[in-house]
Amino acid sequence: MTRRLILLLPLLGFLGLSVFLYQGLSLNPFHRDSALMARDFPVFDMVTLEDPERRVDRSLLANGEVTLVNVWGEWCPECKREMPQLLDLADRGIRMVGISYKDTREKGLGFLQDFGNPFEVNIFDPDGELGFELGVYGAPETFLVDRDGIIRYHHTGYISARDVREYILPEVQKWQ
Amino acid sequence: MQIQMIPEIGHFALVIALLFAIVQSVVPLAGAALRRPLWMAYARPMAAGQFLFVAIAYAALTASYMLDDFSVLNVANNSNSMLPWYYKFSAVWGNHEGSVLLWSLMLAGWGYFAVRYSRELPRDMVARVISVLGMVCVGFLLFILVTSNPFERLLPQMPQDGADLNPLLQDIGLILHPPMLYMGYVGFSVVFAFAIAALIGGRLDAAWARWARPWTNLAWAFLTVGIALGSWWAYYELGWGGWWFWDPVENASLLPWLTGTALMHSLAVTEKRGSFKSWTLLLAITTFSLSLLGTFLVRSGVLTSVHAFANDPSRGFFILMLLGITVGLSLLIFALRAPRVSHKVGFGWLSRDAMLLINNIMLVILTVTVLLGTVYPLLLDALNLGKISVGPPYFNALFVPLTLLMCVFMGMGPISRWKDTSSKLLIQRLWLAAAVAVVLGMALPLIFAERWSAPVAIGIIAALWIVLPMLRDLYDKTRHASSVGAGLKKLSLAYWGMQLGHLGVAVTIVGVAVVSNYNIERNVRMSVGDSVSVAGYTFTMTELASRRGPNFLADRAVIEVQRDGSRRSFTMNPEKRLYIARGMPMTQVALRPGFFRDLYVAMGEDLGDNSWAMRVQYKPFVRWLWLGGLLMAAGGVLAVADKRYRRLATAPDPEDVAASSGAKPEGDRQEATA
Amino acid sequence: MAVIRLALIGILTLLMVGTLQAGGIEVREFDDPVMEQRYRSLTASLRCPTCENQAINDSDAPVSRDMRDRVYMMLMDGRADMEIRDHMVERFGNYVLYNPRLEGRTFLLWGLPAGLVLAGGVLVGLVVRARRNASARELSAEERARLEVLINRGRSE
Lengths: 176, 674, 157
Hints:
Chain B: Pfam families: CcmF_C, Cytochrom_C_asm. The structure holds three protein chains of three kinds. By secondary structure, chain A is of the alpha/beta class. Chain A has a single domain, classed as Glutaredoxin, CATH 3.40.30. By secondary structure, chain B is an alpha+beta fold. In chain B, the strands form two sheets. In chain B, strands 2, 3, 4, 5, 6 and 7 form a six-stranded antiparallel β-sheet that branches. A four-stranded antiparallel β-sheet of chain B has the order 1-10-9-8. Helices cover 62% and strands 11% of the residues of chain B. Chain B is globular. Helix content of chain C is 67%, strand content 0%. Chain C is elongated. Chains B and C meet through α4, α13, α14, β1 and β7 of B and α1, α2, α5 and α6 of C.
C-alpha cells in the first residue's frame, strides 16, 4: 500500500506544478511594483525646466497635497500619446509634477509647447539622476505621492483613458 | 493557379494527417486489448500515412517560403524577397507556427521509423507503442490546427514584401540548431511510448529495455548536438562570447537532457540486471514530459526569456492542457500499473549497480535544481510574494559542485563490476589514476598558464579522474589478447560508446574550467592605426570600410593580428550591420578559432571621429566545450550500432532473456553502461 | 487591419529581440585588475530591469548603461560590493539580483537542493543496505560458487 502511495508522488508533484503554471498564464512577468512603494520620495535638489534659477527639493512633494509625478521625455513617443490623459487629470484638479527626463532644456520646453503642459512645475533631469533614484527604467512612468511625500502607486508605461478611470483616479481618491 | 493553392493543400494535408493520427491512436490499442490482429495491423499503415501527410504540409509551407508567397501571414512575417534561399528554407522553423509544424513532422517521422525498425517486436507491443505515439501526434496536430495555423492568409490585402527573418536567425547556427534540438525532444517520445506500452501491457523485462535503449541513445545524441549547437550559436552570434546563460529556454533543453542521461544509465541496469524497472519507466515518462514542459515554458510567455516566441495566452493554455493530459495520464498509469513487487536483485556498496544508482540520484538532483531555479520566480509571483530573478550566479553555485561530486563516482563507475566489486580491486585499479590526476591537475595550470587557478586545477583533476581509469580499463582488457589490435577489436561497440561518451564529459569539463577562468577580455577604443595587445597577440586596426550585403549595410573593420614573436599575421573582419527591412543593427563577430584558443573581436559603437569601441577576447579551450558535446553524442550513436541491437532484429536471443535474472557468469563482460 | 497587425508584430519582435545582441561594449579604465574583476562580476550579476533576460553587462538598454556607470562610480568611490548591490535593490527592487538573497521566500530555492543531496545520500544508503541483504539472503550454494568464479576471474584480469 505504501508502495502505491510512493508511486503516486510523481503525479501529485506534477499536478502541483501545473497549478502554478496555470496561474502563471495570467500573470504578466513585466508588471513589477516599484521598489520605492510605501517609501519616501527620494531626496533631491534640482532646478526646474522652466526656470534654470529656481531650485526645488523634496518639500515640493510633501506639502499636504496628493501629487502625480510623471517622468517624460521628448524622445519618447508613448509620452506624447499619453499627454491628453494627463491634461484631463490636471483638469480634474489633480496636482501634477513632471520630470523632464534625459532631455535638453530646449527639447523639453518644445515638447510642452507642442503637447500641452498639465504640470504645475517640471523638474529638469537631463542626466536621469533623479530618474535613477526613482528606479525609472524607461519613460513614461508615473508615481503617485501622498500628502506626506510617500510613494503610494506606480504606473509603468503608457497611461490610457481606461487606466485613468480604473487605476489612477481610484488611487488618487484613496490617498486624498 | 495551382501554385496559389499550395497553402490550402498544406492545410488540408494537416487535417488528413490528424485523421490518420486519430485512427492510429485508437484502433491498434483497442486491437491489442481485444487481441484482434487485424486491428493491431492498422498501426503500420496509419503511422506511415500520417508521416506522409504531415510531410506534404511541411513541404507546402516550405514552398510558400521559397516562392515568396507573402499572402501567407507566416511568410510575410518571417521572410523577405531579398533573403537568400537557404534562409528562406530555414525561416520555416524560425517562428512559432513553423517550428511546431517541424515538431509534428519529426514526431510523425520518429513514429514511422519506430514502426519500420520494430518488425521483430511482439505485435501487441508495436500496436501499443504506435498508438501512444499517435495520441501525442493528435495533440500536436490539434495544437497547430486550432491555435497555430501556419497557413493563415492575408487576403485580399497582401503586403508587397515580407518583414524579413530576424537577422539574429539568419545564420548557419539557426539552420542546424532547432532541428537537432527538436529531434532530441521529440525522439524521447519513442521511449516514452515504449514505457507506456509496457505499463499497459504489463510486459517489462530485459528485452523491453533492450528495445528501448537504441531509441533513447539516438534521441539523447540529437539533443546533445542540439544543445551544443545552440551554445555555439549564442557564442558567436550574440557578440559577447558567452556560451551558456542559464536562460529559461536553455534550461528547458537541459532538463530532458539530464533525465535522458539518467535514463540511459538506468536502462543499462534494467537490461543487465533486471532491476530499477519502475524507476526506468518513471525516467522515460519524465524525460518526455520535460521536453513538453520546455515547449510550454518557451511558448506560453510565463517566463521572461531572451528567446521567447511572441506569445499568446490561448496557445499557452492549449499547451498546458496538452501537457496536463499527456503527463497527468502517463503518471496516473504509472501509479496504477508500475510493477507492484520490485524484483530485488542484490548488489554491494562498490558495485556498478550502486554507482549507477548514485549517478541517477545525482542527475535527478541536478534536474530538480535547474527546474527549481527556472520556475521559482514564477512560483513566488503566483503566490504574490514579489518578483525575483534567479540567474547564472545561483545556477553556477549549485550546478558546479554537484557536477563535481558526480564526477567522483563517474571515475569509479565504468571500472566497477555488476553486483559487487571488491574494494581491493577498485583501489588497485584507481590509485594510480588518482595520483596522476592530482599531480597533473595541479601542475598543468602552473606550467602552461601565467597564473595558477584552483578552479582550473579542480576541473582538470575531475577530467583526468574520469579518463585515466578508462585507459587503465582498456589496458586491462587488451593485455591478454594476442595483440593490442586484436584485443581492441574484441571490445563491443557499446563499450566504445560508453568510453567516448565519458571522454566527451571530461573534455567539456576541461573546456568549461579553462575558458571560464583564463578568458581575457579587453574593451578598447580603436581607430585606424591603433593597436591593442591581448594574451600575446597584437591586434591592429588597419582599415575601416563599408560594404553592402544582400539585405544589409555594414561597417567593417580590418584588424591585423600578429602573434608576439612570430612574423606571420592574419586579418579579422568584425562588422556592424544594419539590416534594412527591420532597421535592426547587428554585431557580426570576427572569430579566429583554434583547438587551444579562440580569438574573438566584436565591434561596439561608433564613438565618433572614426573610432569604434572594440571588444577583443582571448578564449582558451572554448572549442572543447562543443567538442565534448560532439564526443558524447558520437558515443551515444556508437552504442546504438552495437551488434546486440542488430541481433535483436533477427530473433530474441535466449541468452539475453536470461540476462534479466541477474546472476550470470558473464556478468563481467565488457558492457556498455552509458 | 492585417497590415496594422503585421506592423505591430514587427515592432513587438523588434522590441523583444532588438536588445538581445551584444551590448555594453564600452571603454572603461581600471588601474587595478581586482577592481576590474569586481566590476565584471557585479555587472554580470545585476539584471537589466527592462530587458527580457539579460545582465546589465551585455545590454544596450539606457538604464543598463546608467547602472553600469553607477557601479563604476561607486567602485571608484571605494564602496563594497554589498553596498553597491543594496544601492541597486533600493532603487530597482530585488528583481535586479541574479543571485537571490537567502530570505524567507527563497529558503526553498537554496534549501531544497541541499536537502536533496542529504536525502539522496540517505536513499543510497538505504537502498544499498537493503540490496546487500537481499543478495546475502538470495545466494544459493551454486550461486556462491559462481560468484567465486567471478571474483577470481576479476582478480586474474
